Amino acid sequence: MIRVRIAPSPTGFAHVGTAYTALFNYAFAKNKKNEGKFILRLEDTDVKRNVKGAEEAIYEGLSWLGLSWDEGPDKDKGEYGPYRQSERLKTYREWAERLLKEKKAYEDEGAIRFKNTGKDMVWDDLIRGKISFPGGEVTDFVILKSDGYPTYNFGAVIDDILMEITHVIRGEEHISNTPRQLALYTAFAKAHPKFAHLPTLRNKDRKKLSKRRDPVDLRVFREKGYLPEALVNFLCLLGWSHPQGKEIFDLEEFVRLFDFKRVRSAGPIFDTTKLDWINGEYIRKTNNDSLAKLVWEYAERKYPLEKVEEIIPLVRERMNKLSEFFTLAGFLVEEKPPKPLFLTDSYSANISGATISKLNNLPESRWNKQNLDKVLGEANRMAGTATGDFFMDIRGTIAGSSVTPPITESIEILGKKETIDRLKTGQKKFSK
RNA sequence: GGCCCCAUCGUCUAGUGGUCUAGGACACUAGGUUCUCAUCCUAGAAACCAGGGUUCGAGUCCCUGUGGGGUCACCA
After folding, report:
1. CB 3.0–4.6 Å: which of A27, A61, A297, A335 could bond A258 by disulfide?
2. Which residue is nearest to nucleotide B25 (CA to C1')?
3. Closest CA-bearing residue to C1' of B3
4. Mind listing the pLDDT tens digit for each residue in A40-80?
5. What is the pLDDT of residues A310-344, one digit of tens each?
């Protein structure tokens, strides 16, 4: 039985790196007939850095991405819990004292320190092959702090033993911790789990992603209008490649095809340019009704759902992020009319009394794209201006922008009264 | 600096000794479609870090160098 875990610290928000590690752990656990267990353990042993709400943020972030865990602090304790390290202090003390009794550790100013054996440490990494450290590298290190909390290396090893973790899949930055952990397994005469060290996600400076400078908070991705499926897909593509070279695939497919053989060891740059494209692909894959709901929720239900549904077909191929709905179609949903733009030299001919009365003569009941095309075409001929210019001025006048969805469709949705009001306003402002 | 990891187009990557005059995707450029923008279609530019080996043959194996990264806490 495969058992894997992620072990984030609740020190703030859900980090995209945590999601990345979780994704690969999840895929590995569920890959084999879906029978592996994916465990969430909270390493809250740095009392000073624990932040309230951080735990919930982690749950939220992972759930948003569809990465569900089988065991964790929010679930029944079961035979392996509790899953918060702060609730396992007694256990760590017992195990540390065992080492003390066997003279494999010693007390040092209120802390307990592990006595290094000086042996070379080697393991066969699932992603990188053989990795070895010279024995002198591991010095005596603290395993139990004077406040009674375990250090990372100790807590992780004890829990991995007790929780029967079979595979430790984590970031590359933990490679240098592995010899210390291996020494601990040896001291307890326990077989160590298999290790797989994933590449670290980097920023444009090729440095490991930083909380300070890089967009790493999962909530921010949601706020920017990314779909969780798209983010997951993007994350899959960092360090892993689809055997058929596919770029767009869902979590289920990733899980099914996952293999460490296809994981690269070089650290990829987390460049969201491609994520924007992937997100657009997912938006275009979503049907109108579902997409309208997503936008509606994204807008915190500020606009009528029916209105959003009406607009979606006009913008679905124009947006890569949900947020772009507003820049594209804001003029159709906002109460306040936009400031008109006069975009061509033939404005006065385009937005003329003739144009407006032509539209005015079209009754509400016949206010649809087909008739609008006809009427606007006639108005354009009367104005005697270039078609592009004609529509451009209508665009600028009713939308206050030179980039909008198609004009006749937009006018249909805007409605007769509002359209004519805006055209009149534009005409008036222009002549001033 | 010690130790460790890594190295193919700007970015994500394919490639497990010959089919590589190195393939795909994003981004970019040009053109087509079009009332703008986008979608869509077509084309284009763009990479094996360097030097030594091994081999009939190296992007692929080995060594060295260079470059990048990680880590050296009573943080995780």
Report:
1. A27
2. A247
3. A137
4. 999 999 988 889 899 999 999 999 999 999 999 999 888 99
5. 999 999 999 999 999 999 999 999 989 999 999 99
Rounded to two decimals, the pTM is 0.96
**Calpha distance A133→A121 (Å, rounded):** 5
Residue A44 and residue A388: Cα distance in Å, rounded?
Answer: 62
Q: Supply the pLDDT for residue A431.
A: 84
Answer whether A394's CB lies under 8 Å from A350's CB: yes
Amino acid type, A267: G
Nearest-CA residue relative to C1' of B4: A176
Q: Please state which architecture CATH assigns to domain A1-71+199-285.
A: 3-Layer(aba) Sandwich (3.40)
* Complete edge-to-edge strand list for the sheet that includes strand A3-6: A37-40, A3-6, A167-171, A194-198
CA distances to A64, A216, A218, A293, A301 from A221, rounded to whole Å, are: 11, 8, 5, 18, 19
What pLDDT is recorded for position A137?
A: 85
Nucleotide with C1' nearest the A405 CA: B37
Prior bond of A215 cis (ω within 30°): no
* Pairing status of strand A111-114 against strand A141-144: antiparallel
A32: left (phi over 0), alpha (psi -120 to 50) or beta: beta
- Mean pLDDT (chain A, rounded): 95
Q: Where are the domains of chain A?
A: 1-71+199-285, 286-333, 347-431
Q: What is the pLDDT of residue A98?
A: 97
Report the pLDDT value the prediction gives residue A92, as an integer from 0 to 100. Answer: 97
pLDDT at A77: 80
Query: Shortest CA–C1' contact from A248: which nucleotide?
Result: B25
The residues with which A198 forms a beta bridge, in sequence order, are A171
Per DSSP, what are the bridge partners of residue A107? Answer: A112
**pLDDT score for A303:** 95
- Residue ranges of alpha helices (H) inside A12-79 are 16-31, 54-64
Backbone φ and ψ of A158, nearest 5°: -60, -45
A174, A245, A278 from A236: Cα distances, Å: 21, 12, 12
State which fold the A347-431 domain adopts: Arc Repressor Mutant, subunit A (1.10.10)
CA distance A8 to A45: 11
User: Which one-letter DSSP state was computed for residue A30?
Assistant: H
Which regions in chain A score pLDDT beneath 50?
none
Our measurement of CA A245 to C1' B48, in angstroms, reads 19
Residue type at position A121: M
- Nearest nucleotide to A155 (CA to C1') is B76
